[in-house]
Design brief:
Blueprint: E1 2-3, E2 10-11, E3 14-19, E4 24-29, E5 33-38, H1 56-64, E6 67-68, E7 81-82, H2 84-92
Antiparallel strand pairs: 1-2, 3-4, 4-5, 6-7
Helix pairs in contact: 1-2
Bound molecules: calcium ion (CA) (2 copies).
Length: 95
């Protein structure tokens, strides 16, 4: 961090700014390392592909991941299995 001119505010020289697949904003500064800032919308239940809507693509994602699945987004209720309950959760949150 360095001060720019007479400004009391710190200034950083940004190196790269990008969003990852989870919607987190990654900012790297040349002299200060990397910071991650979580931005964006709160997760929508049933939006397993995290595109901001619950639609047929989420249904297909649930069907494709059917069965045991630890910590995967298609397991909407978090019980370790992708099954009919998760499909119903997607349908119940249809946007
Ligand atoms: Ca979606
Ligand atoms: Ca489940």
């Amino acid at each position: 961090m360095y001060l720019y001119g007479d400004s009391p505010l710190p200034h950083w020289q940004l190196d790269a700014v990008a969003f990852d697949a989870d919607g987190d904003l990654w900012i790297s500064a040349l002299s200060e390392g990397v910071a991650v800032i979580e931005v964006g919308m709160e997760a929508i239940p049933g939006d397993v592909n995290n595109d901001g809507v619950v639609d047929i693509d989420d249904v297909f994602a649930v069907l494709a991941a059917w069965g045991p699945c630890a910590a995967c987004p298609e397991d909407v209720n978090g019980d370790g299995f992708v099954d009919i309950d998760d499909l119903f959760a997607v349908l119940a949150n249809w946007t």
